[in-house]
Amino acid sequence: MTQFNSFHLLYLVDAAKWTILLSLIAFAGGAVLGMALALSRLSQWRALRWLAIGYIQIVQGTPLLILLFLAYFGLGILGAKLEPVVAAGLALTLYTGAFLGEIWRGCIQSVPRTQWEASDCLGLDRLQQYVWVILPQATRIAIPPTVGFMVQVVKNTSLASIIGFIELARAGQIVNNSTFQPFLVFVCVGAIYFALCYPLSVTSRYLERKLHVAR
Amino acid sequence: MSRAEAVLPAEGQPIDQVPIVRVTGLEKSFGPLKVLDGVSFAVQPGQMVAVVGRSGSGKSTMLRCLNGLEDIQGGTIEICGHQVGRPGSWNKAQLRSDVGMVFQSYNLFPHLTVERNITLALTLVQKKPKADARRIALAVLEQVGLAEKAQAYPEQLSGGQQQRVAIARSLALSPQVMLFDEVTSALDPELTVEVLKVMEDLSRGGMTMILVTHEMGFARRVAHSVIFMHRGRVWESGPTAELFARPQTIEFQQFVGSVL
Ligand SMILES: Nc1ncnc2c1ncn2[C@@H]1O[C@H](COP(=O)(O)OP(=O)(O)OP(=O)(O)O)[C@@H](O)[C@H]1O
Ligand SMILES: [Mg+2]
């Protein structure tokens, strides 16, 4: 048994890189998927709408843990043995996309109908309406709930430890197993999570203020 | 039935001139509610036509039908050569380039400057180069007396100024016909005056305009002809002076009595 020392701390900080990587994968993949789902939900094409609704309902109704199991063990049995980081990234992307899709659909719909009508009367087609009129306004509305959800995702990456992926939370467990100083270790782990999440909230507030002024 | 179906002649113009807007037997329902029940009228180029009537008589709905914002259940609408409402016989993009519309609630784009509000469709739809679009934007802003507000955002303007920008935005696309739906109803009286002034100037300049309005004084003074709508029909219509001098229906008499 060793005392908690600077090597342990470095180990934790190093593991936090994986937490960051997983979060970035989840944001990037989830944003693309979420945008596709939000637009599908609002599509004039009924089949697309139902497809998106079905996906969102199923994924939102499934614990992230189960998604992780499915992506790692499930696909493994089907012959697609994924690296833990890939499986975790996939599960988090599917999960994040479902939630961002619903959040963003709500934001798009909260842009007044009259903005659609006015841009229609000026002759803009649907794509132009989205790009130039609707999405810029929806973005402003979307920032607080999106960042709020992103903070959740950062913390939820800790679930990836369950499939053997060593990220921040798992690293904390490992350090604790050798030092038996749980209070100290997990306070450190918690502090690193906070250091990751707090800048997000600050950025959110900054963006909100900036976009509010520039409108 | 009196003059309800009459084709409106513009003052001082030959009656046989081809109308730029011709509506016949227009019918529109929202579910079981029949809102327009056989609306017919015609508008000559260069005319300003005021549409008046009580709340709920179908004025806004009629205007929205003209611009293809609502589907219709019966009748025909011909506007600038477009057969609006009959599927396949009109092209939305072409209709948009010929017909402008201004709303009661301005509907400016809040995230864009006044100038960008105006240049947006010029560059995206009419594919004008940026410099040309800017020049047009400044010209129409000049026309509505707001050239110095080009870089302002809508929320920095008064209601009257916002509405003038909305008119300029529509005007920039050089439509042949402009539709106005109670564009001064959300404004204080002082601000109403400046917007009405802009519309009067437009009409002087020869723009064909159909405006739904509660400004009876303005309609009486400036409009070439007036359409009185009641229960989803054109109840009475004709050249302004004549119509007000000799109202034919009791409903119009009562309406005029209640608003003046
Ligand atoms: N989208 C809609 N769905 C259902 N009913 C509608 C809709 N739009 C209008 N109506 C109904 O149609 C009728 C006519 O409405 P419209 O807005 O055309 O009247 P208006 O003459 O413009 O009245 P106002 O002077 O109050 O603006 C009203 O009874 C209204 O409730
Ligand atoms: Mg109305």
Give a brief outline of the structure.
With 215 residues, chain A is mainly alpha-helical.
Please name the fourth-level CATH homologous superfamily of chain B. Answer: P-loop containing nucleotide triphosphate hydrolases
Overall form of chain B: globular
Number of domains as seen in the coordinates of chain B: 1
Instruction: Output the radius of gyration of chain A.
Output: 21 Å
Q: Indicate the multimeric state.
A: heterodimer
Biggest sheet of chain A: strands, sense, closure?
none
**In the CATH hierarchy, what is the architecture of chain A at level 2?**
Orthogonal Bundle
From N to C, what is the helix and strand string of chain B?
A: EEEHEEHEHHHEHEHEEHH
Superfamily (CATH H level) name of chain A = MetI-like
Number of domain units of chain A: 1
Q: Which regions of chain A have little confidence, pLDDT < 50, spanning 5+ residues?
A: none
Helical coverage of chain B, percent range: 25-40%
Chemical compounds bound to the protein: adenosine-5'-triphosphate, magnesium ion
Provide the residue-averaged pLDDT of chain A. 91
What is the fold named in CATH at topology level of chain A? MetI-like fold
